[in-house]
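User: I'm putting together a small comparison set for a docking exercise, and I want a reference complex before I start. The sequence is below, and the ligand is magnesium ion. Could you produce the 3D structure with the ligand included, as structure tokens?
Assistant: Of course. I'll restate your input first, then give the structure tokens for the complex.
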Amino acid sequence: MLVKNPKLKISAVSPKQYPTNNLPQIVLVGKSNVGKSSFINTLVNRKKLARTSSEPGKTRQINFYDIDNKFYLVDLPGYGFSKMSKIEQEKVGNFIEEYLQKSKNISLIIFLIDIRHNPTENDKLMYNYILKNNFPCMVIVNKADKLAVTKVLNEVENLQKILNPLKDITFLPCSSERKIYTDRVWEEIEKYI
Ligand SMILES: Nc1nc2c(ncn2[C@@H]2O[C@H](COP(=O)(O)OP(=O)(O)O)[C@@H](O)[C@H]2O)c(=O)[nH]1
Ligand SMILES: [Mg+2]
């Protein structure tokens, strides 16, 4: 998809601020630093629309990006940032859950994991929460540039075996850094807009 005019609609700190129109919301979920904000920038072909950071876990807000008045990309705060206190981590968890419960227009959750690591306990909790609540979901295995091209598909399959042995969820590799594999990702997303 060729995106023409992506813009930040609002950084919501409470549900009152969620957009009230009926545009579908495509939501990025994943631990801090997995590349959610970079993924948004890559999809919409902008360097700095979504703020990326090498210092994760800073902000507790939900950024709604209006994509050509067709849909929203929703950037959630990351969970599981180890330098955060237990209580802070719990607050972030509740904040994410509140959005997932209260938003009426979630059409797809894009769950990001890192190709180099097995899913963490927090990843598994979040992933199971998504499935238990019947959200449509696809898994993006990000940072694929960190592996040799010949190993990427094997590792994606490996991670799918761990999280989704039934193989009824789409798993796709991506590199937000190098902008590779994104055509296939767009193809999948467009089914939900
Ligand atoms: N090598 C590589 N680095 C990435 C990729 N995606 C994101 N990063 C880096 O990972 C860090 C965290 O990215 P960010 O998008 O802020 O993660 P977020 O916390 O999930 O939003 C940044 O330093 C990015 O440059 C990727 O596909 N490959
Ligand atoms: Mg981010």
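The chain has five helices and seven strands. Strands lie at 6-12, 25-29, 62-67, 71-75, 106-114, 137-142, 170-173.
User: Thanks, that's exactly what I needed.
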